[in-house]
Design brief:
CATH architecture of the largest domain: 2-Layer Sandwich
Distance between the termini: 16 Å
Number of strands: 12
Largest sheet: 8 strands, mixed
Helix content: 25-40%
Order of helices and strands: HEEEHEHHHEEEHHHEHHEEHEE
Bound molecules: cytidine-5'-monophosphate
Number of domains: 2
Length: 316
């Protein structure tokens, strides 16, 4: 009913809605810190059917404003420091006119500060929604360029699917992926900051007994995806940031162990964490796994998701 009422009142010249997926990194391979303050990456992004929705409403005379709904919003700013707000501003400055304004509403389902690129997804959604709302003459390449400027993880939610990311993770090439994969996500009680996890990674790598890491993605991931072999993919999941995330939040070790003991095909910290992603054999196995993980003390909540799915999509 609510949907029907909304459809009746929404004028597409005035309101644009975009749905944007979360991501999990099937592989995250990290090289040493560069002079630019970033780490070179080789990563495999995989888009999941866990979405944030960005609603963009036209506003006169250059005003931008933002509201939020969903869980765990205490740590999400609703001002000009929000990445989605910055995305709208950047788009207007580069490709628009000073009179362009928008009210952005972010309906958040992607865990906040979870390593699933929720903030980046919102920025990607804001770029697409505002470019349509303002009827701008922007190409997908234009949006990709702005996305990369906003953050390393912002381009991928525009593209979706499964893709290799290099550079800072922002240079993307789609990857062959067969079949659908069923995931359980175990959310943690507290978030983790991406820069803090990279800093701890540097500290751990500086220890004399550290095994050097690099940007080469293990062959197993691409081979498993090409065959559609979930068991092989489970065994190939890899994250060089995992040790740093577990070092900062030792209870994540307990979460990962519990999921594997409950029958997951593989377990990995998602991105810079603290969300842990578990691959299940099928949907029924994912339901059992989610039930088992929900009882683990270090797990705040679980979500089930499948992928790959499309990138940012207009829904009006
Ligand atoms: O690009 P983004 O703003 O998401 O990055 C946040 C922080 O994460 C950076 O300031 C940097 O400290 C760290 N980072 C990194 N190497 C990357 C991506 C992010 O060190 N490839």
């Amino acid at each position: 009913m609510e949907e029907m009422r909304r459809a009746a009142v929404d004028d597409p010249d005035q309101v644009v809605r975009v749905r944007v997926p979360a991501k999990v990194n099937l592989a995250l391979c990290v090289g040493p810190l560069g002079d630019d303050g970033f780490h070179p990456l080789g990563t495999v992004f995989h888009a999941l059917n866990l979405y944030d929705e960005v609603v963009a409403e036209k506003r006169p005379s250059g005003q931008i404003s933002l509201t939020l709904s969903g869980d765990g919003l205490d740590d999400v700013p609703a001002d000009e420091s929000n990445l989605a707000w910055r995305a709208a501003r950047l788009l207007a400055d580069r490709h628009g006119t000073p009179d362009l304004g928008v009210h952005l509403h972010l309906k958040k389902s992607i865990p906040v500060a979870g390593g699933m690129a929720g903030g980046s997804a919102d920025a990607a959604g804001a770029l697409l929604a505002c470019s349509v709302l303002w009827d701008l003459d922007t190409t997908p390449d234009d949006l990709h360029e702005l996305a990369a400027e906003l953050g390393s993880d912002v381009p991928f939610p525009l593209m979706g699917g499964t893709a290799i990311g290099t550079g800072r993770g922002d240079q993307l090439v789609p990857m062959l992926s067969r079949g659908t994969y069923h995931w359980v996500l175990a959310l943690a009680h507290d978030g983790l900051s991406t820069p803090a996890v990279f800093r701890r990674f540097d500290e751990l790598q500086a220890r004399p007994d550290a095994t050097p890491t690099g940007t080469a993605i293990p062959d197993g991931v691409a081979a498993a995806l090409a065959k559609g072999d979930a068991a092989a993919l489970g065994g190939a999941l890899h994250n060089d940031l995992q040790a740093a995330a577990v070092d900062l939040r030792p209870e994540l070790g307990e979460t990962l162990r519990a999921g594997l003991e409950a029958g997951a095909l593989g377990a990995v910290v998602s991105g810079s964490g603290p969300t842990c992603a578990f691959l299940a054999a099928d949907e029924a196995a994912a339901m059992d796994l989610a039930a088992a993980l929900a009882a683990v003390a270090s797990v705040r909540a679980t979500r089930r998701a499948s992928g790959p799915v499309s990138g940012a999509t207009l829904i009006t």
